[in-house]
Amino acid sequence: MRKKKRWALIMAIVMLVLSVPNSMIQAQEIQSTQEFAIECAVESESNPLYGFNSETSTEVTFESAQQTKVPETSGPRLENFDLGIAYLRNAFVNRETHIEFGFYCDQPIDRAGDVIKNALFVHTKNPIEGDYLKFQYRQYKVTRYLVASGSRYCYLIFMDVVYMTDSAQEAAVSTAVSDLLGSLGINSMDSYSKIKTIYNWICQNVSYDYAHVGNTEYLKQFSAYGALVEGTAVCQGYAVLLYRLLLESGVDVRVIPGTGNGALHAWNIAELNGVYYNLDSTWDAGKDLYGYFLCSENDFLGHVRLDDYRTDEFMTLYPMSPKTFEDKEKTTSEETTPETIPETTPEETEPEETTSEETESSTQETTPEGDSSVEQPTSEQETTPQKKYPEGLALDENGVWKYYKNGEICTSYTGLTLYYGTWYYVEKGVLNWNYTGLTNYYGTWYYVKGGRLDWGYTGLTKYYETWYYVEKGILNWNYTGLTNYYGTWYYVQRGILNWNYTGLTNYYGTWYYVKGGRLDWGYIGLTNYYGIWYYVQKGILNWNYTGLTNYYGTWYYVQKGILNWKYNGIIYHDGLRYTVTNGVAKYM
């Protein structure tokens, strides 16, 4: 009888082991690799607007690494740098004051502190990340260990942060932002109207917090919470609020730190028609006539940027308009439009997965190839088609817009041409108002809608049975991530919709679960990403979940969103008691 019980127990253990996926076993084995701490760095930093020389750093290299104990972290160890940064950024968004985690990498990172900081605050265009985080903490202190872990390395991070606001105040900001933008009717406006309406509201409703000037312990004055919820702030609060509201409205914007008339100051730049303009809502607050609204650099007197914000790299990413924006420029553009007949916009349809190949005739435009190394048109190239009249667009005697070259209609030309600042699509010498789709110009693919190059369009477009990703009017071969098209989120890989992808992808700091090229909002369970098993809840990686989850008939223990192979203990789930052994749970 005892032999039968013993044999049954052995078989149960064998079945349990066999039920665990092989990749899970491999991930578990990684955790047991022998490790040694190589070096330790202690760094602290204050917010950029508190002072320019606010960084301190101490670094210690251990001479006898194999005798240096590796500290334990209460947080997870992530498989790579990107996942580590996503975890850290999520902690900042949630205003966590103490953060512990780690991430693996193949090689030590040169100037790791700067690399991590820059990645944490990178401009993701998510309204609650980027500059919104960068200018909403007061200071942080971080202790960072570099650990040799088998053939790889691991950085262990221990960080303490002081924020301008707490999570409850940020929740109040989010509610107030939603209510304000809804009341202003922002969604129905063009970009200029969005900028002007939001700028007007801030200048008319936020007052300067003179009561706390110089009191750096009163942190709300530096925050969007102070500006929006309490109605009073200093320049940092003004700038961060404008950043939040414009990004929520779909307008790209940055916070620019520097000096105003020699004192520490912050303002914004915002994108309009492909270039950026300066805005200073602090200095325009309460005024009837604005002096710092959509200004060029030359007209933006008294402002000097910090060095990092006037480098060639930064100015290339955010090209400034050579002249200050005027309302009449918009009117002039409309008056010079060569359109004389109503435009028609072809209806877009939801992407469908195509399995059959279409044979292209010799008259069809060549399908774009994924060569991201093709050079962008230079300014000289862009103006080549429109050197002088009669070359370019002109009305014929029947009121039809046609493309002329050397005084004659050029029926051989199909492509883009410039006319009074707007690019139009010409097909066989005639402006085609009905065309919507991609077209190639000097090696770059542009998106045309209703005969015009649409600089404002970001999303998917279908071209010869393949769906491509367009960003601000240009096919972006470098983009990998999610995009929304008619209410459904699709997964794009290197500029092309990938119907075959199933797994996790990062979008504005949040990890989503994709199945067959579409974001699967209904999925709840585990998924493997680079050897680590993560817990997904309704399509989103849930870093906050701790408990049991069932995966193919076996129960596993998840801690803060990651399957914990080291956990042993008793867990209650739905009123039932489970014994957890090495992360695998069994009902008692």
Structural write-up:
- There is one protein chain.
- This protein has 588 residues and is of the alpha+beta class.
- The protein has 4 domains: 35-163, no CATH class; 170-326, C8orf32 fold; 379-476, no CATH class; 551-588, no CATH class.
- 22% of the residues lie in helices and 35% in strands.
- The strands form 11 sheets. A 6-stranded mixed beta sheet has the order 2-1-5-6-4-3, with helices on one face. Strands 35, 36, 37, 38, 39 and 40 form a 6-stranded antiparallel beta sheet that branches. It has a 5-stranded antiparallel beta sheet with strand order 12-11-10-9-13.
- Helix 7 packs antiparallel against helix 9 (235-248).
- The relative contact order is 0.08.
- Mean pLDDT is 82; it is low at 9-32, 328-350 and 354-389.
Name the descriptors.
588 residues; alpha+beta; C8orf32 fold; 4 domains; 6-stranded antiparallel sheet; 40 strands; globular
Q: Any guess at the CATH architecture of the largest domain? A: Roll
Count of all domains: 4
Termini, distance in Å? Answer: 22 Å
| CATH topology category name of the largest domain | C8orf32 fold
Tally of separate helices? 13
* Major sheet: 6 strands, mixed
Overall 3D form: globular
